[in-house]
Design brief:
The structure is a single chain. This protein is α+β, with helices and mostly antiparallel strands and 119 residues long. The protein has a single domain, classed as Aspartate Aminotransferase, domain 1. The chain is built from 4 helices and 6 strands; from the N terminus they run αββββαββαα. The chain starts with a helix and ends with a helix.
Protein backbone atom coordinates (compact mmCIF):
# COMPACT_ATOMS: atom_id res chain seq x y z
CA UNK A 1 0.00 0.00 0.00
CA UNK A 2 1.04 3.62 -0.45
CA UNK A 3 -0.17 6.91 0.99
CA UNK A 4 -3.15 7.25 -1.38
CA UNK A 5 -4.26 3.63 -1.00
CA UNK A 6 -4.00 3.93 2.79
CA UNK A 7 -5.97 7.19 2.79
CA UNK A 8 -8.70 5.68 0.59
CA UNK A 9 -8.90 2.60 2.79
CA UNK A 10 -9.15 4.58 6.04
CA UNK A 11 -11.89 6.77 4.56
CA UNK A 12 -13.86 3.68 3.53
CA UNK A 13 -14.84 2.98 7.15
CA UNK A 14 -18.24 4.35 8.24
CA UNK A 15 -18.30 7.87 9.74
CA UNK A 16 -14.54 8.48 9.38
CA UNK A 17 -13.33 12.04 9.05
CA UNK A 18 -9.92 13.31 8.05
CA UNK A 19 -8.12 16.51 8.83
CA UNK A 20 -4.64 17.93 8.97
CA UNK A 21 -3.23 18.70 12.40
CA UNK A 22 0.15 19.82 13.67
CA UNK A 23 0.72 21.16 10.13
CA UNK A 24 2.22 17.90 8.85
CA UNK A 25 -0.05 15.01 9.89
CA UNK A 26 -3.18 13.68 8.21
CA UNK A 27 -5.45 12.29 10.92
CA UNK A 28 -8.27 9.77 10.57
CA UNK A 29 -10.92 9.95 13.25
CA UNK A 30 -14.08 8.19 14.33
CA UNK A 31 -16.32 10.11 16.70
CA UNK A 32 -13.60 12.74 17.11
CA UNK A 33 -10.99 10.19 18.24
CA UNK A 34 -7.91 9.38 16.17
CA UNK A 35 -7.37 5.77 15.07
CA UNK A 36 -4.60 6.37 12.49
CA UNK A 37 -2.39 9.16 11.20
CA UNK A 38 -0.06 9.62 8.28
CA UNK A 39 2.94 11.91 8.23
CA UNK A 40 2.84 14.27 5.25
CA UNK A 41 6.34 15.60 5.86
CA UNK A 42 8.91 13.61 3.88
CA UNK A 43 11.48 14.31 6.62
CA UNK A 44 9.42 12.42 9.21
CA UNK A 45 11.01 9.13 10.30
CA UNK A 46 7.57 7.45 10.18
CA UNK A 47 4.91 7.33 7.48
CA UNK A 48 1.96 5.84 9.38
CA UNK A 49 0.91 5.34 13.00
CA UNK A 50 -2.13 3.53 14.35
CA UNK A 51 -3.67 2.06 17.50
CA UNK A 52 -3.47 -1.65 18.24
CA UNK A 53 -4.15 -4.00 21.15
CA UNK A 54 -1.36 -4.74 23.67
CA UNK A 55 -0.55 -8.19 22.23
CA UNK A 56 -0.29 -6.95 18.64
CA UNK A 57 1.72 -3.93 19.84
CA UNK A 58 4.30 -6.26 21.44
CA UNK A 59 4.43 -8.43 18.32
CA UNK A 60 4.72 -5.55 15.83
CA UNK A 61 7.36 -3.59 17.71
CA UNK A 62 9.66 -6.62 17.44
CA UNK A 63 9.74 -6.21 13.65
CA UNK A 64 12.31 -4.12 11.80
CA UNK A 65 10.78 -0.88 10.57
CA UNK A 66 8.09 -0.70 13.27
CA UNK A 67 8.50 1.14 16.56
CA UNK A 68 6.33 2.44 19.39
CA UNK A 69 4.78 5.66 18.08
CA UNK A 70 6.32 8.85 19.50
CA UNK A 71 4.27 10.29 22.41
CA UNK A 72 1.55 7.61 22.24
CA UNK A 73 3.46 4.33 22.26
CA UNK A 74 2.43 3.80 25.87
CA UNK A 75 -1.17 3.65 24.61
CA UNK A 76 -0.25 0.83 22.19
CA UNK A 77 0.27 2.90 19.07
CA UNK A 78 2.84 1.72 16.52
CA UNK A 79 4.70 3.73 13.88
CA UNK A 80 5.80 2.36 10.50
CA UNK A 81 9.00 3.64 8.88
CA UNK A 82 7.64 2.78 5.40
CA UNK A 83 4.42 1.42 3.98
CA UNK A 84 6.00 -1.82 2.74
CA UNK A 85 7.05 -2.94 6.22
CA UNK A 86 3.87 -5.05 6.25
CA UNK A 87 2.00 -6.78 3.42
CA UNK A 88 -0.99 -4.78 2.19
CA UNK A 89 -3.58 -7.29 3.43
CA UNK A 90 -2.09 -7.31 6.92
CA UNK A 91 -1.91 -3.52 7.04
CA UNK A 92 -5.57 -3.31 6.02
CA UNK A 93 -6.51 -5.75 8.79
CA UNK A 94 -4.53 -3.75 11.36
CA UNK A 95 -6.15 -0.47 10.28
CA UNK A 96 -9.59 -2.08 10.51
CA UNK A 97 -8.67 -3.31 14.00
CA UNK A 98 -7.50 0.21 14.96
CA UNK A 99 -10.83 1.63 13.79
CA UNK A 100 -12.77 -0.97 15.80
CA UNK A 101 -10.65 -0.46 18.94
CA UNK A 102 -11.28 3.28 18.96
CA UNK A 103 -14.96 2.90 18.02
CA UNK A 104 -15.51 0.45 20.88
CA UNK A 105 -14.06 2.93 23.40
CA UNK A 106 -16.36 5.79 22.35
CA UNK A 107 -19.16 6.71 24.74
CA UNK A 108 -22.39 4.83 24.02
CA UNK A 109 -24.17 8.06 23.11
CA UNK A 110 -21.64 8.87 20.38
CA UNK A 111 -21.65 5.29 19.05
CA UNK A 112 -25.45 5.44 18.81
CA UNK A 113 -25.31 8.77 16.97
CA UNK A 114 -22.79 7.33 14.50
CA UNK A 115 -24.91 4.23 13.92
CA UNK A 116 -28.02 6.36 13.31
CA UNK A 117 -26.07 8.52 10.85
CA UNK A 118 -25.20 5.43 8.77
CA UNK A 119 -28.89 4.60 8.22
Amino acid sequence: MDIEQTRTYCLSFPSVTEDIQWETDLLFRIGGKIFALMALDAASPYVLSFKCNPEKFAELTELDGIAPAPYVGRYHWVALERFDVLPGAELKRLLADAYQLVLAKLPKKIRTQLQNRKR
